[in-house]
Amino acid sequence: MSNKNKFNKVEYLLSEEIKNIYRDRLEHQLDNISYKLFDRTLIVILEGAITPPEKLLKNNDRLHLAQQVRRVIDEAINPQIKNIIEEVMNVEVTDFLSDTTIENNISGAIAILEFKSNKDSKNS
Amino acid sequence: MTDNLVTRGQLERELSQKVQAFYRSHLGHQPSKVTCQLFSGKVAIIIEDSITSAEQILLDKGKEDLAQKVRSNLDNAIQPELKQLIEEIVKVEVIDILSDATLETGRTGMILILNKDPEILSPEKTSKLKKINE
Questions:
Q1: Strand order in the sheet with B94-102
Q2: Structural domains in chain B plus CATH codes
Q3: Is the CB of B113 less than 8 angstroms away from the CB of A95?
Q4: 10-residue block means of pLDDT along chain B (134 residues)?
Q5: ipTM > 0.90 (yes/no)
Q6: Domain A3-117 - what CATH class?
Q7: Where do the domains of chain A lie?
């Protein structure tokens, strides 16, 4: 299988799992998930990440409260997304940087990866 | 017209250099490495060793919460000018900035959402130009 096909399969598996987290924990369906892999960095973009309660808060001049809610949601969900990346890609995520903007309904994450084979060869 | 266009790699290098200089001039601290990647109407910026000495002292003294607050406020304070800098380089409007930092690793990551892909010299045109110059 070519590297491109392999990564397409990885993207599919990641997307299924991330969508499941949003559905199971937030009863919310994401619009789209996209990825970019370069060097040892994976970028994940979640479009349509904001839930109806957060949108309702924002639309009723409670943006600050909506942002506080999102911070807690991200804190709860991000460790799960990090674990999924580690399991699906067979890597260790050594850093996970993420942010969400309610106004644009978008969430993005940068995962710094340590490939298991690299790590093993370094240790040997 | 391709006269003023640069390749993706050139644009990414220019972004990295300018962002590194921006950090030095605004925070008095030069990050050890800045990596920029352009993809599908977005720019990812990864800044290694982005934490200032003042924040490091807070961390060393066990004031993690204050250090986190300082970092978050510094990021917010520099964002408008950083946005302007990126817009000047890529010549495209930045419509959103997602930004986060990990104090333990000293790494800052940003994803800038552009309103369209920047105009760059396509790989085909680059190889044609190389052939002409040969």
A1: B33-39, B42-48, B107-114, B94-102
A2: 8-133 (3.30.980)
A3: no
A4: 80 97 94 96 96 93 94 93 97 96 95 95 67 60
A5: no
A6: alpha beta
A7: 3-117
